[in-house]
């Protein structure tokens, strides 16, 4: 399972930023040992259903510790029998772009 997600606290800092809370959530994901990557808008994580969902719950919980309300946006690619898709999907795209 490959999941792209974004967690946002309802409470921002004095400048309207949420980087501190988001950093705590990303730390949870990175410390999980699952394959992951973070970009400007989402964090991608790959693993089995139960392990990915457990990591997402911990990430939400850490943000909820500093905010009374948390928003979670999640998109999942569920493809049994396929692993390594966090990089393989991009490699397939780049291969096709290189042909032109």
TrEMBL record:
<dbReference type="InterPro" id="IPR029756">
    <property type="entry name" value="MTH1187/YkoF-like"/>
</dbReference>
<feature type="domain" description="Thiamine-binding protein">
    <location>
        <begin position="3"/>
        <end position="93"/>
    </location>
</feature>
<dbReference type="InterPro" id="IPR051614">
    <property type="entry name" value="UPF0045_domain"/>
</dbReference>
<protein>
    <submittedName>
        <fullName>MTH1187 family thiamine-binding protein</fullName>
    </submittedName>
</protein>
<dbReference type="InterPro" id="IPR002767">
    <property type="entry name" value="Thiamine_BP"/>
</dbReference>
<comment type="similarity">
    <text>Belongs to the UPF0045 family.</text>
</comment>
<dbReference type="Pfam" id="PF01910">
    <property type="entry name" value="Thiamine_BP"/>
</dbReference>
């Amino acid at each position: 399972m490959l999941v792209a997600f974004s967690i946002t606290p309802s409470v921002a800092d004095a400048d309207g930023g949420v980087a501190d809370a988001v950093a705590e959530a990303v730390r949870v994901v990175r410390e999980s040992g699952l394959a992951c990557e973070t970009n400007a808008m989402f964090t991608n994580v790959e693993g089995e259903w139960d392990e990915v969902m457990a990591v997402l719950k911990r990430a939400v919980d850490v943000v909820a510790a500093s905010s009374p309300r948390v928003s979670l946006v999640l998109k999942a690619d569920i493809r049994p029998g396929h692993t390594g898709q966090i990089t393989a999907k991009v490699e397939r795209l780049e291969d096709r772009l290189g042909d032109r």
